[in-house]
Amino acid sequence: LATLLDDPSLLKTQGYVNGAWIDGDTGTFEVTNPARGDVIAEVADLSRAQVGTAIDAAYAAQKEWASWTGKERAQALRKWFDLMMANQKDLGTILTAEQGKPLNEAVGEIAYGASFIEFFGEEAKRVYGETIPGHQRDKRITVMKQPIGVAASITPWNFPNAMITRKAAPALAAGCAFVARPASETPLSAIALAVLAERAGIPAGVFNVVPSSSASEVGKEFCENPKVRKITFTGSTEVGRILLRQAADQVMKCSMELGGNAPFIVFDDADLDAAVEGAIMCKFRNNGQTCVCANRIYVQAGVYDAFAEKLKAAVARMKVGDGLEEGTDLGPLITTEAIEKVQQHIADAKSKGAEVILGGGDVLQGAGNFIEPTIVTGATRDMLFSTDETFGPLAPLFKFETEDDVIELANDTIFGLASYFYAKDLSRVYKVAEALEYGIVGVNTGIISTEVAPFGGVKQSGLGREGSHHGIEDFLEMKYVCMSV
Ligand code: ADP
């Protein structure tokens, strides 16, 4: 892997704690390339005590960092952003090697990840308080916004770079110090971020990366250590619930970006070609492994067959392969368990009457976790994907008759992260956008992620928002000062 990089020094395997590179007290753990099945790195496996040391360092560094002016923090973050963009290709290569997504998507993720650092650096200057007219003649009321303190993150493998920057950037901008525990499948991207943070002059202790093979140990340390004041998590609803329970003992502030089960609705007045293009981007980006990927595709009866045909033709053209090879559209899945889940969803749908019109979930040749993309028609609400996120390249097509029917179907889930629909009628667009119980609605588009908008879910998809000027609020406390004059 190092030979593919212009700057091999970005490829490190140690933890980054208090501005120093450290080995793990628990030894190392392996990182595998999901496209080839070979081990690409042995990464420091930090013990719970070492995570505690990182928290101590963050705690000690935070007050000084918070005393920097917003502009000073902005300048450091800007340097970090510039370094990420200057090393975009290398960071993308590292990301593809450990995660599998096609290189162009990985390079795109680096730009997306960096955009949070740029955006929140700018926001650091705009953490405005408030002056409220007093409630008595001698009273003056001021509201200040202050950093929460030490924030700790646990993030997944599907966006090894951006899920960290989306949290660390607003935290650092607000004046918090940060301890990041990357997914054990994809720690190299996080470590590379630390290399660049160090080069950017982010002070020791302000940004720490603690790789560990034991997520639950780190999760406990984060929740039980009284120096941590905020936990920010992206991952499954299941693990989110565990962390919320653990965080309850210290009444710790929590941001949770949890699972989704995104509906993608095509109405009969939609531009079908645009809808197919949107469905491809939305369903197959990262090979279906995003929490905003379309999981249930609802198509109105009048255009159902036409949409299915067009989607089939488009998916049939997609090339499955190693993300580092030119022309790859769909990389491997992250693990063999991920493949089994997709196969289980296909088998379940078939047993309940669905028809496979493309693919079928066969594993493709080679050592990597490759599976063919699949489309099924005749999907119904009793099939597994109606309640459970597939997280892979399976597109189930449901047929619906009326607007009311599809709204009811789309909302029939415990999740509420992203939703999408294609339609032209303006009153329909308004009505459906209002009726969908989701934190995000894409109208005539399959791509909704940007640093300037608030990303987050309702219902069991999460708490809090990431991105936009709202994103920094999750790392700030309000303090009300009442003055008698
Ligand atoms: P995903 O399906 O996206 O991997 P998970 O919720 O399983 O979702 O994992 C998200 C992150 O949470 C990963 O980094 C994983 O290692 C971590 N994790 C898993 N179990 C726990 C736990 N009990 N406590 C804290 N973190 C956990």
UniProtKB/TrEMBL annotation:
- Which InterPro entries has this protein been placed in? Ald_DH/histidinol_DH, Ald_DH_C, Ald_DH_CS_CYS, Ald_DH_CS_GLU, Ald_DH_N, Aldehyde_DH_dom, Aldehyde_DH_Superfamily, Succ_semiAld_DH
Q: Which GO terms describe its molecular function?
A: glutarate-semialdehyde dehydrogenase (NADP+) activity; succinate-semialdehyde dehydrogenase (NAD+) activity; succinate-semialdehyde dehydrogenase (NADP+) activity
EC assignment: the record states: 1.2.1.16, 1.2.1.20, 1.2.1.79
Which Pfam families does this entry report, sorted A to Z? Aldedh
Question: Which keywords label this protein?
Answer: Oxidoreductase
Q: Which residues form a coiled coil?
A: none
**PROSITE patterns assigned to the protein according to its UniProt record, in alphabetical order:** ALDEHYDE_DEHYDR_CYS, ALDEHYDE_DEHYDR_GLU
- Please provide the Gene Ontology terms (biological process) for this protein: gamma-aminobutyric acid catabolic process
Carries keyword Oxidoreductase?
yes
| The keyword Signal is assigned to this record | no
Gene Ontology CC annotation, any one: cytosol
- So where's the catalytic machinery, residue-wise? 257
Superkingdom of the organism of origin: Bacteria
| Domain Aldehyde dehydrogenase: from-to ranges | 21-481
Q: In which family does this protein belong, per the annotation? A: Belongs to the aldehyde dehydrogenase family.
Query: What is the name of this protein?
Result: Succinate-semialdehyde dehydrogenase / glutarate-semialdehyde dehydrogenase
